[in-house]
């Protein structure tokens, strides 16, 4: 049988037993395994031998575009077949011969939809910080106006209560649309209360409607590249992900998709597997991945509920990777027919399907229920107000017992 040279990073004869789980998350390795499977079937069909020429697993990260493939593909004539399927580039078309596409590849970011991060701030989300500050300022100014008018009414008519604290209570109760009782005799004071209550009613309606819309809005596909670029998520990549896209991610700002996220990618962190997965789950981090190679790891370390919070954002999708040979390879036509036969009988689809498919969440896993931590802010505020009220009550008791003032006088 005729022997041909095949370029590969991992020897196909040793993949089944030499390489362990430490590199199973490496997309380069998984794609090489697919190329090995296809070549082994073609060997059985056309009876030829392969001698594997190993290349280094590391490449110069400063090389991009066609220069990256030049570092991977040796001069024409040195090898006959390239084990790892490759995407089409200008250099490959000039120096090699793409046979047939074997699988479609996609790469992007996987991150956790930080639902709890939003729900813990849920009651403040309808308004921005500036709007909240304006509402507080409006309460202070309105209370001051009410106090001046109540003081003026008492001076003119000689009756009624004049208390700045009580006017603050009235203003706050108007904002909450639970207005405390009050008595106003002068028209000026009545008009001030009327227009303040009408204004706070409009604000309250806008707040409740916005709050309700956030409850019933569909969160599917909530984040895209633009929103990721504007968010506070950090970008991470696994240290040994030998992706050609990893080189492109840091060196190609003119790409349409990459230009959106380019500034964030300049600060990419290189992390080991477990720390990178923990960062995705707990530290608002987006991991650069081809998705299918990291899902088995997520299923290994995390619960169903946590995995169902993961979302995917594509950078590139449906990129065809081809089985590639040299231009002088004698079995080009046989390889093309063989790959078509594999696709026709379904073997190619079976070989290209990862052993562990991406996790599928059911409806009951997606629906979330309110938890105590999500209500922690209002509950703590309520308890603190009760404690403060009892503390003030104790101080009032001590004060009025010493000074014998009504209503603490028998």
The gist of it:
The chain has helices at residues 27-46, 65-72, 90-95, 115-119, 129-157, 164-175, 187-216, 225-230, 244-251, 258-265, 273-282, 295-301, 304-307, 332-344, 347-352, 363-366, 376-403, and strands at 3-8, 49-54, 81-87, 96-112, 234-238, 269-271, 285-289, 310-326.
What do these coordinates show?
The protein is rod-shaped. The protein contains 17 helices and eight strands. α1 (27-46) crosses α14 (332-344) and α5 crosses α6 (164-175). 50% of the residues lie in helices and 16% in strands. It starts with a strand and ends in a 7-residue tail after the last helix. 23% of the residues are buried. Mean pLDDT is 77; it is low at 57-71 and 242-248. The longest helix is centred in the middle third of the chain and has 30 residues, at 187-216. The protein has four domains: 3-104 and 318-352, D-Maltodextrin-Binding Protein, domain 2 (3-Layer(aba) Sandwich), CATH 3.40.190.10; 112-118 and 220-315 and 359-366, D-Maltodextrin-Binding Protein, domain 2; 123-217; 376-410. It has helices at 27-46, 65-72, 90-95, 115-119, 129-157, 164-175, 187-216, 225-230, 244-251, 258-265, 273-282, 295-301, 304-307, 332-344, 347-352, 363-366, 376-403; strands at 3-8, 49-54, 81-87, 96-112, 234-238, 269-271, 285-289, 310-326. The chain has an eight-stranded mixed β-sheet, with helices on both faces. The protein has 410 residues and is an alpha/beta fold.
């Amino acid at each position: 049988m005729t022997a041909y040279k095949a370029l590969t990073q991992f020897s196909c004869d040793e993949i089944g037993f030499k390489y362990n789980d430490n590199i199973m998350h490496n997309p380069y390795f998984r794609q090489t395994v697919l190329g090995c499977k296809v070549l082994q079937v073609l060997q059985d069909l056309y009876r030829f031998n392969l001698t594997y020429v190993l290349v280094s697993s590391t490449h110069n990260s400063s090389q991009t575009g066609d220069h990256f493939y030049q570092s991977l593909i040796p001069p024409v004539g040195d090898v006959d077949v390239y084990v790892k399927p490759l995407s089409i580039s200008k250099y490959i078309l000039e120096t090699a011969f793409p046979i047939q596409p074997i699988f479609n590849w996609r790469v992007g970011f996987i991150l956790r939809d930080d639902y709890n991060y939003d729900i813990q701030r849920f009651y403040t989300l309808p308004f921005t910080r500036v709007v909240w500050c304006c509402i507080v300022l409006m309460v202070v100014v309105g209370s001051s106006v009410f106090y001046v008018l109540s003081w003026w009414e008492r001076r003119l008519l000689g009756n009624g209560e004049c208390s700045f604290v009580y006017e603050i209570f009235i203003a706050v109760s108007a904002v909450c649309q639970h207005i405390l009782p009050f008595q106003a005799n002068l028209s000026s004071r009545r008009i001030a209360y009327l227009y303040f209550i009408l204004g706070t009613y409009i604000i309250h309606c806008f707040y409740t409607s916005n709050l309700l819309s956030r409850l019933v809005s569909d969160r599917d596909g909530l984040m895209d590249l633009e929103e990721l670029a504007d968010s506070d998520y950090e970008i991470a990549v696994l240290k040994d992900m030998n992706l050609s896209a990893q080189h492109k991610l840091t060196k190609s700002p003119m790409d349409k998709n990459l230009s959106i996220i380019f500034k964030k990618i300049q600060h990419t962190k290189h992390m080991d597997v477990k720390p990178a997965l923990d960062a995705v789950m707990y530290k608002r981090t987006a991991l650069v991945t081809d998705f299918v190679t990291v899902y088995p790891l997520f299923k290994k370390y995390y619960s169903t509920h946590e995995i169902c919070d993961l979302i995917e954002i594509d950078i590139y999708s449906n990129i065809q990777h081809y089985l590639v040979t040299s231009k002088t390879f004698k079995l080009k036509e046989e390889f093309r027919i063989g790959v078509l036969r594999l696709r026709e009988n379904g073997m190619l689809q079976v070989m290209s399907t990862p052993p562990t498919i991406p996790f599928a969440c059911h409806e009951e896993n997606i629906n979330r229920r309110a938890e105590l931590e999500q209500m922690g802010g209002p509950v703590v505020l309520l308890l603190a107000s009760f404690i403060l009220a009892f503390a003030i009550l104790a101080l009032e008791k001590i004060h009025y017992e010493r000074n014998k003032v009504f209503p603490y006088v028998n």
